[in-house]
Here is the input.
Amino acid sequence: MVTNTEIKVERDGHVVRIVLTRPPHNYVDPPTMQRLADVLLQLDEDDACRAVVLSSGADAFCAGANFNDGSNAGTAVDPAPFYVHAMRLFRNRKPIVAAVEGAAVGAGLGLALVADFRVTCPQARFSANFNRLGFHPGFGLSLTLPRLIGAQKAGLLFYTGRRIGGAEAVAIGLADELVDMAQVGARAMALAQQELAIQLDQFRTEDFREGVAAMAARRLPVFKGR
Here is the structure.
């Protein structure tokens, strides 16, 4: 498992929590995005991992991407590798729950939408601020955001770059559950455990056994809904 102090991996049974810790704002750069993609793709091949919680060890879930090379001159680095690795995140097939506290802005919003579900709090802030940076929405957001909340609402967020709080995010379907800030992590973990319970129930079905048998025999499965 490829981890470091910025990306921590914690296991709770069959649920794995990934904690992004780059205080204070959890800005992500190309190397961080590569490591995060490496971790998710390794978990995708890990049979002991049935669901993932993506959370923050900083004040923000992720306040965006950092394309500065770190020099005093503030020279921008090529953003292409960042988005190449960002697209790799979508190859993970495990259910992912994002625990969104604080800001999920720009690339942070894109990262939140890699997840299948989002638990948030009133203090969270969501924004697709790419127009203010002078380029097209990245991180696959031109596909994921309209699919989630509809073209009209997505267009409003894209064109204005406005920030919305956790309550509004839930109201428009951008997030799934609103809880107190102190409960976001625990609720996201509980939701991931619930996804796991659904999977375990399915493993005991006749259709699951038929699916496995059909794959082994290289034939089409005959499902009966039981």
